[in-house]
């Protein structure tokens, strides 16, 4: 059954304008606000929407300048083995050294990049930086995999496998040292075309992972269909102890499919103890380190210490399959 979720923007004459162009522009602003609020709703125009639109236009212009002025950077957050507490990988996260706002995370501007048609250029730049960085660290004796995020918009625009293949050739990087993180929403949008692209990426040698798992609508059938090797459990489940039974269910599902399980957002020792009990394989979070500049990450690699593995809890005591 087809489910329709309209987003409707409304403005009124003559309060919000007396000519058609003005009224249409303000109705559009109200419609986009309805989409931002979750779709399937009606939103009435108010003056704050004009201010928001002006801010977005200003940010879009600044972002285009940032690409030209080399204000973008990739920072890296460690992926850590739960058993040994050693760094086994890194997630490359986009940052913007804004001239007045300081260091800005991608969450603040990636949607604007998508809407403005800049996502391919930015995505290619991040992939190139990550591949070159992985080669540099490997040559220094730290041959760890780097993961990068692919947005749903990159899949909707198509040819992502061709773009990444070209960057592989340009950089001389090994695809097997690059992990690609895809959200559940990307998997479920135009599923057949997405599956074709994912298979092409796998055939190139990339490792595919589902990011923020649990926030979408994936089920066992979907996971079996796609060529993914890891699930990254969304930080919202880690932060809320009432949702830990969901974490346990995700772990059980992942173990059934022989997937690597990565817990995101680990900030306390108690959270680390819990994922040790559940036998997650890896974790990320501020408990070990936030995302840092490449030179700082290399210091982490050089200075890390191995700790004794925690006692292994039998799977039968966890209520999950071994």
Concise description?
By secondary structure, the chain is of the alpha/beta class. It has 14 helices and eleven strands. The longest helix is centred in the first third of the chain and has 23 residues.
Largest sheet: 8 strands, mixed, barrel
CATH class of the largest domain: Alpha Beta
Shape: globular
User: Could you give me the name of the CATH homologous superfamily of the largest domain?
Assistant: EAL domain
Low-confidence segments, ≥5 residues, pLDDT <50? 305-322
How many whole angstroms does the radius of gyration measure? 22 Å
Looking at CATH, which topology of the largest domain would you report?
TIM Barrel
Order of helices and strands: EHEHEEEHHEHHEHHEHEHHEHEHH
Order of strands in the sheet with most strands: 3-4-6-7-8-9-10-11
**What is the residue-mean pLDDT, rounded to a whole number?**
86
- Helix percent reads 40-55%
Structural class: alpha/beta
Strand fraction: 15-25%
Distance between the termini: 38 Å
Number of domains in the coordinates?
A: 2
How many DSSP helices? 14
Annotated CATH architecture of the largest domain: Alpha-Beta Barrel
The count of strands amounts to 11
């Amino acid at each position: 059954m087809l489910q329709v979720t309209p987003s409707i923007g409304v403005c009124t004459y003559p309060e919000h304008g007396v000519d058609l162009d003005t009224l249409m522009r303000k109705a559009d602003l109200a419609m986009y606000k309805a989409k931002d609020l979750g779709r399937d709703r009606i939103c009435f125009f108010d003056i704050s929407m004009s201010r928001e639109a002006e801010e977005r236009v200003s940010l879009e212009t600044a972002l285009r300048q940032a690409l030209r002025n080399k204000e973008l950077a990739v920072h890296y957050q460690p992926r850590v083995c739960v058993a040994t507490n050693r760094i086994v990988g890194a997630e490359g996260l986009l940052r913007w050294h804004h001239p007045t706002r300081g260091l800005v995370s991608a969450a603040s501007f990636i949607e604007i990049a998508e809407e403005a048609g800049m996502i391919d250029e930015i995505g290619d730049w991040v992939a190139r930086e990550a591949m070159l960085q992985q080669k540099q660290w490997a040559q220094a004796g730290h041959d760890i995999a780097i993961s990068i995020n692919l947005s749903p918009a990159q899949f909707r625009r198509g040819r992502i496998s061709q773009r990444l293949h070209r960057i592989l050739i340009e950089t001389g990087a090994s695809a097997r040292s690059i992990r690609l993180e895809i959200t559940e929403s990307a998997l479920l949008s135009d599923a057949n075309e997405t599956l074709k692209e994912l298979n092409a990426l796998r055939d190139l040698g990339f490792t595919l992972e589902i990011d923020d798992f649990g926030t979408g609508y994936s089920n066992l059938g979907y996971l079996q269909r796609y060529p993914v090797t890891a699930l990254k459990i969304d930080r919202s489940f880690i932060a809320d102890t009432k949702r830990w039974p969901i974490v346990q269910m995700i772990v059980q599902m992942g173990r059934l499919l022989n997937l690597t399980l990565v817990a995101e957002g680990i900030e306390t020792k108690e959270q680390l103890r819990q994922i040790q009990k559940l036998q997650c394989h890896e974790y990320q979070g501020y408990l070990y380190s936030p995302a840092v500049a490449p030179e700082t990450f290399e210091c982490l690699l050089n200075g890390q210490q191995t700790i004794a593995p925690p006692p292994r809890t039998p799977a039968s005591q966890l209520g999950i399959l071994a």
